[in-house]
Specification:
The complex is a heterodimer of chains A (322) and B (454).
Chain A (H helix, E strand, L loop, with lengths): L2 H4 L4 H5 L3 H4 L11 H35 L2 E2 L7 E2 L3 H8 L1 H32 L7 H13 L2 H12 L4 H8 L16 H26 L3 H9 L4 H12 L1 H16 L3 H6 L11 H11 L3 H28 L2
Antiparallel strand pairs in A: 1-2
Helix pairs in contact in A: 4-16, 5-16, 6-10, 6-13, 7-10, 10-13, 13-16, 15-16
Chain B lengths: L2 H19 L28 E7 L3 H17 L3 E7 L2 H11 L8 E4 L3 H9 L7 H7 L1 H4 L2 H4 L3 E2 L10 E2 L2 E2 L3 E9 H7 L7 H13 L12 H4 L1 H7 L5 H8 L12 H13 L12 H9 L5 E5 L9 H4 E4 L11 E5 L2 E4 L6 H11 L2 H9 L17 H15 L3 E2 L9 H13 L5 H21 L1
Parallel strand pairs in B: 1-2, 1-3, 10-12
Antiparallel strand pairs in B: 3-11, 4-5, 6-11, 7-8, 7-9, 7-10
Helix pairs in contact in B: 2-17, 11-13, 13-20, 19-20
The chains are: A mainly alpha (322), B alpha/beta (454).
Chain lengths: 322, 454
């Protein structure tokens, strides 16, 4: 970003005021009066605190992490340079491979389902004819407001052996389906995924509802005149118009699944066995519980790169189809 | 951002990274590595006013015990003021390494046993080598070797359980053993078990009466192992378990009783003696269940169950003797180890506080607050607390047999997680006792290989 963009719009005419005095050369785009230059620096000065902050909080740690990832380090004593071996360990460690496989399942639950359900709810709520639409919107957005730890604790109760979910199943005669949702090797990961779905749904819905609201009504009127069914209307008008929102929702939810830590840590700690471990969980363990900072940094860097790639691919795809 | 900008940024990042990688992280603090014990130490701390910053994780009820200890110390040393900072265990542990690098950090901090905490800090020279104070205060004579061993590391950080002293135990103990609900047993007409065979008979009887024999929850990996470690102590010698944990000699994990313990646990699970659906129950909930009368027995760490005044009259604790013979072996250690920051400006005063933490006064304060004392067995109970009396009696048996063993999970930084996961697999029928032992050995071997590399 250039500093010029940081200037308020009105600055431009101000720079051109002493036109006659300075002569034709001043018309050149690159030449600016001292006053304008001063303003440019002023803009940068205003941005400086934020930039410095960003540098210290984001850029420096990233650089440090990259540097740590080449070492074997317990966090206290002198580190030993090990080159790329942390990275090669990353790709050969069966535990990490398993964790990455879990992430693929989580992507389905954290991104796939919420987006599908979000589109559905946007289609229903977006056109604003529904009674109490505001209430539904409010209810669906609620999980987005809660801290993930609170969400996790609530769901831990819901999933408990005698929790509401199992009680409900028993009450309707489906007692055979009742189980230890978070303690079951087969069901723990999907159960965790459902929590993620519940959390991400609100965000997707709000994004899509906002997107639908921005679609000009004439389009729908036109479609209706042509005799399009609601389904066709959705596929022909709503869905294409939501491409931008879809890209944002996908980016946020997919990277959210890749980074999944808090929900997992509070509900299962990666268990039972290793059936719900995620790379972020392993990163935390290596960084804090079992001091291997280098390996933790390597996991973090690889995750960051994957997240970046995912974001780039999604953006590229959504732009290509435009 | 345009492509060119991106390339530029990447190049700049790489360049900076290269510059940074030129100096190894942690290099600056390594100069004090393998620190020698300070010379010219003094046990005379009267005189100048000193404020000591103490970092600990004793909150709530335990915090009141610590407050009493601090008050006692300040009374004895009016010129020394203690400034306590208390956070929960995880917060303290995860930030300890950095806090001890801070010149304005704590003078005294609680450190955990084992490789991931005390070992790393000793090796990195962040905590003071206390050998000089140990001789000045006579700690090596006063503290039994089985307990003191838990505070020792060689100064290169390569060997645990021998070498220099790096921390001092608080005179309060934490054991793993069997709790029972005496009121429930009485109602069923079952005697308090004195041996493993008694316990198994009792469990069968409780089950037959339609009640839950053992209150258990295995959803948290970390706590699901309390029962495994409790059982393990019944099958192996104190020496073998100790040698395995301290990696001295070459004891295989199969000699530490872990296979037999896992076999027994699986048998109990198959017999339906554990709380049904324990896979979905967090350990904290299982403790509440036990205190609410759902379950007659529980293997647990002493000090974890918050008994009410009434419950103190009807619950009890026992350290079962070995499966074969009457020797008593049990996991036991201090409830916390205090170390002095290498950056502390008042090491003498700090050492005086450590000495007080290990003193009879602290042990007395433990008993007064309903906790098991350590190092001093001749403390008096003021309020009637039959439950605590059973804990004290059990600990006395351990002392008499010289049967203290360290927590098994100190053997490697990842052992607790590994075995916790294995217990979950075992109880789900996805693993066998032999596979559990093999996984523990694999974890151990991997750590030993890494340790050899330095």
């Amino acid at each position: 970003m250039s500093s010029r963009q940081l200037l308020p719009r009105r600055a431009a005419p101000a720079a051109a005021v002493p036109e006659g005095a300075v002569g034709p050369a001043a018309r050149g785009r690159r030449r600016q009066s001292p006053r304008a230059r001063r303003r440019r620096w002023l803009g940068l000065a205003f941005a400086a605190p934020a930039l410095i902050m960003y540098g210290f909080v984001v850029v420096v740690p990233i650089v440090q992490s990259v540097s740590y990832s080449f070492y074997s380090w317990d966090g206290v004593s002198t580190a030993r340079f090990v080159g790329l071996s942390n990275y090669t360990a990353f790709f050969t460690d069966p535990e990490l491979g398993e964790a990455l496989a879990h992430v693929l399942v989580l992507v389905l639950f954290f991104a796939g389902l919420p987006i599908l359900l979000g589109l559905l709810s946007a289609a229903l709520l977006g056109r604003g004819k529904l009674r109490g639409a505001g209430l539904y919107r409010w209810l669906l957005f609620l999980p987005q407001v809660l801290t993930s730890v609170v969400v996790a604790v609530i769901w831990k109760r819901i999933y408990g052996p005698n929790g509401p979910l199992n009680s409900a199943l028993r009450a309707v005669g489906l007692g055979d389906l009742a189980r230890n949702w978070l303690g079951d090797f087969t069901w723990a990961l999907p159960s965790l995924g459902v929590i993620g779905t519940w959390t991400a749904l609100g965000l997707c819905m709000v994004l899509f509802v906002a997107g639908v609201a921005a679609i000009p009504n004439e389009l729908y009127e036109q479609a209706r005149l042509d005799g399009a069914s609601p389904v066709k209307e959705f596929l022909a008008i709503t869905l294409p118009a939501l491409r931008g929102q879809l890209a944002v929702a996908l980016t946020l939810t997919v990277t959210g699944a890749l980074r999944a830590f808090d929900l997992v840590w509070v509900t299962t700690q990666g268990g039972p066995g290793t059936s719900t471990t995620t790379p972020a969980l392993l990163l935390y363990r290596k960084a804090f519980l079992n001091p291997d900072v280098g390996m933790a940094a390597a996991i973090g860097i690889v995750l960051a790169i994957i997240c970046l790639l995912v974001a780039l691919i999604i953006t590229r795809l959504s732009e290509e189809n435009a | 951002m345009t492509k060119r900008h991106l390339m530029g940024a990447a190049a700049a990042l790489l360049a900076t990274a290269t510059v940074l990688t030129a100096c190894a992280p942690g290099g600056s603090s390594s100069s004090s590595s393998s620190a020698k014990s300070p010379s010219g130490v003094s046990t005379d701390v009267a005189g100048d006013d000193v404020t000591l910053k103490v970092l600990d994780f004793w909150q709530n009820e335990e915090g009141k015990w610590m407050d009493a200890v601090v008050a006692g110390f300040e009374k004895q040393h009016p010129n020394i003021k203690i400034e306590r900072t208390t956070q929960d265990w995880g917060q303290v542990m995860n930030t300890l390494n950095l806090r001890l690098a801070d010149p304005n950090g704590p003078d005294i901090a609680l450190v955990n046993n084992g490789w991931q905490s005390m070992g790393t800090l000793a090796k990195g020279g962040r905590i003071l080598n206390l050998d000089a104070y140990a001789s000045a205060y006579g700690w090596k004579d006063e503290i039994p070797s089985t307990i003191l061993r838990q505070e020792q590391f060689t100064s290169d950080g390569k060997q645990m359980g021998s070498g220099s002293v790096y921390a001092v135990p608080a005179a309060r103990s934490s054991l793993i053993g069997l709790y029972y609900n005496k009121a429930a047993l009485d109602k069923l007409g079952i005697a308090v078990p004195k041996t493993l065979a008694d316990l198994e008979k009792a469990c069968a009887a409780v089950k037959a009466a339609g009640q839950i024999p053992i209150a258990y929850g295995s959803q948290d990996k970390g706590s699901s192992t309390a029962i495994l470690f409790g059982l393990q102590d019944l099958y192996s010698s104190a020496k073998d378990i100790g040698d395995f944990v301290y990696s001295s000699g070459s004891v295989p994990i199969t000699s530490t009783g872990i296979t037999q313990a896992a076999t027994a646990l699986k048998k109990w699970s198959d017999a339906g003696w554990l709380t049904p659906n324990h896979q979905g129950i967090p350990f904290a909930d299982s403790m509440n269940n036990f205190l609410a009368g759902k379950g007659v027995f529980q293997f647990n760490y002493t000090g974890s169950l918050g008994f009410s005044a009434a419950q103190k009259q009807t619950y009890g604790y026992v350290q079962l003797p070995q499966a074969n013979g009457d020797q008593v072996v049990g996991t036991g250690s201090t409830v916390g180890n205090l170390a002095i920051s290498a950056k502390s400006k008042h090491p003498d005063a700090a050492a005086a506080f450590l000495d007080y933490m290990a003193s009879k006064a602290t042990a007395q304060a433990s008993v007064d607050h309903g906790y098991l004392p350590l190092l001093h067995n001749d403390v008096k109970q003021s309020a009637p607390d039959p439950e605590l009396a059973t804990e004290i009696a059990a600990q006395q048996k351990l002392t008499d047999s010289n049967g203290f063993v360290p927590y098994f999970d100190w053997s490697t930084p990842t052992m607790l997680d590994t075995l916790g996961g294995q217990v979950q697999l075992l109880l789900a029928g996805k693993s066998t006792p032999d596979q559990l032992a093999a996984a523990g050995q694999k974890d151990y071997d991997a750590f030993q290989a890494q340790r050899a590399k330095g």
